[in-house]
Amino acid sequence: MPKALLLENIHPDAAQSLRDHGFEVVTAKGALSEDELIDALDGVDIVGVRSKTSVTRRVLEARPTLSAVGCFCIGTNQVDLDFAGRQGIAVFNAPYSNTRSVVELVICDIICLMRRIPAHTHHLKHGLWDKSASGSHEVRGKTLGIIGYGNIGSQLSVLAEALGMRVLFYDLEEKLAMGNARRCATLNELLEQSDAVTLHVDGRKSNTGFFGEDQFAHMKQDAIFINASRGFVADLDALKQHLDSGHLSGAAVDVFPVEPKKNGDPFITSLADEDNMILTPHIGGSTLEAQKSIGHFVSQRLEDYWEKGSTSLSVNLPQINLGPNRGVTRIAHLHANLPGVLARVNHVLGEENINIAAQSLGTEGELGYVVTDVSQKPSSKTLEALRAIEGTIRMRVIS
Ligand code: NAI
């Protein structure tokens, strides 16, 4: 029976789904240290982690028979992806499962900031009745500037338009504009026209400090600012200055340059005393719906990989989307991306007069992956010969 270990309180639907697919599943609430993880992975075929368990090179070296790692979250930088690939260990994540949750939080931020809800709440909590329309606006007809028009940015675009907002976006890459959204050729063009500016860029290193004094200075008088992307992308000292000077009318920040490691840890931010400010502890994607959806999405990728050899949506292996076996035996062969490996695989099979019923090849960077459905069960001698082909990283027989 294959064995799966699921750490960090992954949604129970994932464990159930893996059990339904024949896995013995062990679950644990917390994260594990490197040494604890090495111990716990003894005899484990598939491990599921979230963001707090690091699957380092040392862990992967110590457990070379591990087959796959499921990151039940969006990010994958807790796993040494390159080394995992070179060891033949597939890594999967859930890139879209909490997109909607982030979008809904941002819509909430925009409406609340435009109605000055944080400020009104603060006044009432301190015993001050201040009923006034001053500084409060409908979002209808206002311009939303979306920076980073990927999964989240583009879905936000659709929902914002449904609320009657005019949408502008800026992205480094050519992107299909949703609905009536309009692409800006430069960041400043977007900043100078937007009543609300929201960041949805990815976490690449070059985005460190991407939104600083210069960018805030280009924003419209009384505009609002939102960051629910990555903490290191925006300069919060510059934001504070633009709030204090009265240039910007409010802000919502969900992600911070340094975030506490665990719940209950203290957290201090210089933005705490701002009037029209929403501060949330990186909960953009944290909804029960998103957790459930992540549980389903990643467990299905792991099951498909285990049962069919399918690497569709893997973040570190060449991607092949496979249907059911069209022969008797399926052989998944991961190798260094060198010329002639496919020919050698077929030559070895031909030596035993084995007919190929179907074959798929994918290459990506230094890796090649060929999956062959053959019409008869290969002998152990043939399987050994396939394993012995130069450049072979891992070979798996899937019946
Ligand atoms: P994505 O990868 O689909 O989209 C990112 C987009 O930003 C891409 O289109 C890319 O070309 C663009 N981009 C990158 N750098 C840029 C720059 N300097 N200027 C303009 N465009 C740039 O990512 P997705 O899934 O939409 O996520 C966006 C961000 O949201 C990520 O940073 C992610 O980590 C964060 N996130 C935050 C969550 C939260 O709980 N607050 C939950 C989920 C994601």
From TrEMBL:
EC numbers, comma separated: 1.1.1.399, 1.1.1.95
Keyword Nucleus: no
All residue ranges annotated as the ACT domain in the record: 330-399
Gene Ontology MF term list: (S)-2-hydroxyglutarate dehydrogenase activity; NAD binding; phosphoglycerate dehydrogenase activity
Catalytic class of the enzyme: oxidoreductase
Swiss-Prot/TrEMBL catalytic activity: (2R)-3-phosphoglycerate + NAD(+) = 3-phosphooxypyruvate + NADH + H(+); (R)-2-hydroxyglutarate + NAD(+) = 2-oxoglutarate + NADH + H(+)
Keywords annotated in UniProt: NAD, Oxidoreductase
CDD domains for the chain: ACT_3PGDH (cd04901), PGDH_3 (cd12176)
Pathway participation: Amino-acid biosynthesis; L-serine biosynthesis; L-serine from 3-phospho-D-glycerate: step 1/3
PROSITE patterns on file: ACT, D_2_HYDROXYACID_DH_1
Family indicated by similarity: Belongs to the D-isomer specific 2-hydroxyacid dehydrogenase family.
Its job: Catalyzes the reversible oxidation of 3-phospho-D-glycerate to 3-phosphonooxypyruvate, the first step of the phosphorylated L-serine biosynthesis pathway. Also catalyzes the reversible oxidation of 2-hydroxyglutarate to 2-oxoglutarate.
Protein name: D-3-phosphoglycerate dehydrogenase
Lineage: Bacteria, Bacillati, Actinomycetota, Actinomycetes, Bifidobacteriales
